[in-house]
Design a protein that fits this description.
900 residues; Neutral Protease, domain 2; 5 domains; 5-stranded mixed beta sheet; 27 helices; binds tryptophan; binds zinc ion; zinc ion binding; Peptidase_M1_pepN_Ig-like; zinc; aminopeptidase
Length: 900
């Protein structure tokens, strides 16, 4: 696209069904890196439900046209152009064969057909198939595919595509072929092929109905020792979807392939999922506990797409959350169920741990998105580049919108809705409304108001007022819903109140839940948590027989993606942290307590006032630290302070330096005030023996390593350095080794340290041949503390020149550049603007290679208007620089929306 061309805006309201339908596709590939010949034979007919078109317009990009024929005869009435190919004077039903050439070796976008480590891969979602051949590349055109792959046998011994292998064999000149057939109709974005030198871990399992299934995890030969966990995760996913949703694997064969050059996490291509190596490869030496659980979650996510996404797909890309929100919800539930295999007490706590982690991501990232120029509803109304709408809102808020059906109707009611959804829509391309109607009809409810969750951008704010009438023993909660100042986009488009499931409990002076009886009810219910259906702009709920003035526990388990405003005192929050029966809200109380304190301190730091920490906070955190009745995983989460980015977001004017000073001050105070306790916890939560990636063992490691991180904050970090060095040397797993290295880097910031430099050197040499571990090596350095004498930007710039660094590999670019720009706010937002200059350079450099990745990095500055004036001006200048130079539609959409 030329610099001056105004990008076209695609609108949901303009949806029209396709003029033609494609029923079958036969693809033949002659795979050669620079010149792959693709022959595409399609059975096409007019769509009876669309307006009659005179010609057929197919999408195509970066393709070289060779020839066309219709019903076997050469056809000259075709015109290939920049965006595709026009076929004139077509009959009502015909077979069209198109031959074209694509250059996979030169494809750095990682969309379409590309080469990675000498092997061929494809990525077609959202609009990559048009870079392979001309097509109606839109999800409401569903066809069955037969794929023939031909390639040099020595260079590409393995040839894979979707579905079942029909036949394979040798060809002349050292070549061979394989023919695959996918029996299920699918949209083009689910097509995939893989060719190259790969090996597989294989397993045969029986599905619920007794059919045998072949499962494979394909990797490069040297990675075969890191596939067991992915395979186990796949087997667990298959079982879980049968048990929880009655959904069985529909193919005889299911494959996962790992690739190191990949734009996102993974892709759910029918029967042939393609994964970023980061979400497949793991063994104790190379992967952390977080990696292990991410792999389980992503394997589950892609597998669950087989039903929610593939069997029932999206009518158009505005419906993306139909598959993504639902599938994120399913993977979250899967992980929660997997983590809570144990006793019921452990059970509750383990589920809460997962919930807390998910909510933390939502609040940190999605709430921020909702407060900036990219704010959009779960079902967007328009886009310029669809790849920019694979967002926190579509995925994470979308998942909350699905979760609320389950909160309203219970697990059984939710299952009834899912069953009806598949009964009605299996094999179709549908909308978010279709899903909502299935939930409504299966539960006998009118969910018209619920539609607003899909169409309204912004984070709702609920203010809570309470009144206790001691003489009548009545307690009234008055809820008001609206949007705060941050969500101006939301206020402008406000459509009326939302249906909000608002879960609450009332806590008595003894710390126990009180019985709940709403006015008008015959008796108190046995449940001490109630889901109030809050549907009005303002609405009151009165409880009767309330023996004493209760303390309200609001929005239990985070029952809706909203902000709750209620004036708790510090003592009340400390009480909730100690007593709430809802584990999520125990954590939440601690976070509120800390956030309030940290924001006050940040204001003091911004104005140069002295900092002082309220003893209530130290005492409350100390109690959690030493409460052995709480699970270690929960304690680790409760003792972790809200992130700097989240805190800066809460300020009237974001001031990263002030937030950093405040947070560092509190970390140091907690470290020194509780030093003996941290040391004791460090010793008590060791996990001797062989490494186990279980939630229990992981919880001990997390808490122990948090203790180490706090100890590293002390003005004299000698203890931490001694412990970290010993831990680094003795570690039999990456969780402990990386945590030790990180603690050494922290200690080095206050004291300087040969230990940190030694460990960094050792770490590199030890893992030189493990790219995913070298990513950690870059990331740890990019996220480190930094000093006046040695700002992190200098280290980052030096690392950009390291022989192991390359901008072409997205994981590597993310490990160094994104870690610095998005995960080290105090250093990135340096007062001299050095971070922003670096950001602009890298966005522009990436733009020429990989627009999708460049656009993600471009978003690091989108909240610029919310910062202090000095930073704001420099951020704007950097954005303008990028806006003047960026070429891709992807980056332009982001920076132009930011500057608008
Ligand atoms: N559908 C994929 C998922 O969420 C994500 C995805 C969308 C993707 N576009 C992509 C992955 C481009 C890689 C590249 O599971
Ligand atoms: Zn997905």
């Amino acid at each position: 696209m030329a610099d001056t061309e105004t990008p076209q805006v695609i609108r949901r309201a303009d949806y029209a069904p396709p003029a033609f339908l494609i029923d079958t596709v036969a693809l033949e590939f002659d795979l050669v890196p620079e010149r792959t010949v693709v022959r595409n034979t399609m059975r096409i007919r007019r769509n009876p439900d669309a307006v009659r078109a005179t010609h057929l317009e197919l999408m195509g990009e970066a393709l070289q046209f060779v020839e066309a024929s219709i019903d076997g005869k050469p056809y000259a009435n075709v015109h290939a152009h920049e965006h595709g190919l026009t076929v004139d004077n077509v009959p009502d039903s015909f077979e069209l064969t198109l031959t074209g050439i694509c250059n996979a070796a030169a494809n750095t976008t990682l969309s379409g057909l590309y080469v990675s480590s000498g092997n061929f891969f494809t990525q077609c979602e959202a609009e990559g198939f048009r870079r392979i051949t001309w097509f109606l590349d839109r999800p409401d055109v569903m066809a069955t595919y037969t794929v023939t792959l031909r390639a040099d046998k020595a260079a590409y011994p393995v040839l894979l595509s979707n579905g079942n292998l029909l036949e394979q064999g040798d060809l002349p000149d050292g070549r061979h072929f394989a023919r695959w057939e996918d029996p299920f109709r699918k949209p083009s974005y689910l097509f995939a092929l893989v060719a190259g030198k790969l090996v597989a871990l294989e397993e045969r399992v029986k599905s619920g109905s007794g059919k045998e299934k072949l499962l494979q995890v394909w990797v490069e030969p040297h990675d075969l020792d890191k596939t067991r966990h992915a395979m186990d995760s796949l087997i667990h996913s298959i079982r879980w979807d049968e048990e929880r949703f009655g959904l069985e694997l529909d193919l005889d064969r299911f494959m996962i392939v790992a690739v190191s050059d990949f734009n996102m996490g993974a892709m759910e291509n029918k029967g042939l999922n393609i994964f970023n190596t980061k979400y497949v490869l793991a063994n104790p030496e190379t992967a952390t506990d977080t990696d292990f659980s991410n792999i389980e979650a992503v394997v589950g996510h892609e597998y669950f797409h087989n039903w929610t996404g593939n069997r029932v797909t999206c009518r158009d890309w505005f419906q993306l959350s139909l598959k993504e929100g639902l599938t994120v919800f399913r993977d979250q539930e899967f992980s929660a169920d997997m983590a809570s295999g144990g006793s019921t007490v452990e059970n509750q706590a383990a589920r809460a741990t997962k919930r807390i982690e998910d909510v933390r991501v939502l609040r940190q990232m999605q709430f921020a998105e909702d407060a900036g120029p990219m704010a959009h509803p779960v079902r967007p109304e328009s886009y310029v580049e669809i790849n920019n709408f694979y967002t926190m809102t579509v995925y994470e808020k979308g998942s909350e919108v699905v979760r609320m059906y389950q909160t309203l109707f219970g697990r059984e009611g939710f299952r009834r809705g899912m069953d009806l959804y598949f009964k009605r829509h299996d094999g179709q391309a549908v909308t978010c409304d279709d899903f909502r109607h299935a939930m409504a009809d299966a539960n006998g409810r009118d969910l018209a108001q619920y539609e607003r969750w899909y169409s309204q951008a912004g984070t709702p704010r609920i203010t809570v007022d309470t009144h206790y009438d001691a003489s009548q023993k009545r307690y009234t909660l008055t809820l008001t819903q609206g949007y705060g100042d941050a969500a101006s986009a939301a206020r402008e488009t406000q459509k009326g109140p939302l249906l909000i499931p608002f879960a609450i409990g009332l806590i008595g002076e003894d710390g126990n839940d009180m019985p709940l009886r709403l006015e008008g009810e015959a008796s108190a219910s046995p449940q001490t948590t109630r889901v109030l259906e809050f549907t009005g702009k303002e609405q009151s709920f009165t409880f009767v027989d309330v023996a004493e003035k209760p303390l309200p526990s609001l929005l239990r388990n985070f029952s809706a993606p909203v902000v709750v405003e209620y004036d708790y005192t510090a003592d009340e929050l400390a009480f909730l942290l100690a007593h709430d029966s809802d584990p999520f809200n125990r954590w939440e109380a601690g976070q509120r307590l800390a956030t309030r304190e940290l924001l006050t301190l940040a204001e003091h730091a911004a104005t140069g006032n002295a900092l002082e920490l309220d003893d209530t906070v130290v005492a409350a955190f100390g109690r959690v630290l030493n409460d052995e009745t709480l699970s270690p995983a929960f304690r680790e989460l409760a003792l972790m302070l809200p992130s700097e980015a989240y805190l800066a977001e809460q300020m009237d004017e974001s001031n990263p330096a002030a937030v950093h000073s405040a947070r560092q001050f509190v970390r140091k105070r907690l470290a020194s005030a509780l030093k003996g306790d941290w040391l004791a916890v460090y010793e008590r939560h060791q996990t001797p023996g062989a490494y186990e990636p279980t939630p229990e063992a992981g919880g001990h490691r997390a808490l122990k390593n948090l203790a180490l991180a706090y100890l590293a904050e002390l003005d004299d970090p000698a203890d931490a350095v001694r412990l970290a060095k010993a831990q680094y040397d003795a570690a039999n797993n990456m969780t402990d080794r990386a945590a030790a290295l990180s603690a050494l880097l922290t200690a080095a910031a206050s004291k300087g340290g040969a230990e940190a430099a030694d460990a960094l050197g050792d770490f590199y040499r030890r893992f030189e041949n493990e790219p995913l571990v070298i990513d950690k090596w870059f990331a740890l350095q990019a996220m480190q503390r930094g000093t006046k004498a040695r700002p992190v930007i200098e280290i980052v710039r030096k690392l950009m020149a390291h022989p192991a660094f390359t901008l072409k590999n997205p994981n590597r670019a993310r490990s160094l550049i994104f870690s610095f720009c998005s995960a080290n706010p105090a250093q990135f937002h340096a007062a001299d603007g050095s971070g922003y200059a670096f950001w602009a350079e890298q966005v522009i450099a990436l733009d020429a290679l990989n627009p999708q990745v460049a656009a993600r990095l471009a978003r690091a500055l989108e909240l610029w208007r919310r910062f202090t004036p000095a930073l704001r001006d420099q951020m704007r200048a950097a954005l303008e620089k990028v806006a003047a130079q960026a070429k891709s539609r992807d980056v332009r959409e982001i920076v132009e929306k930011a500057l608008a």
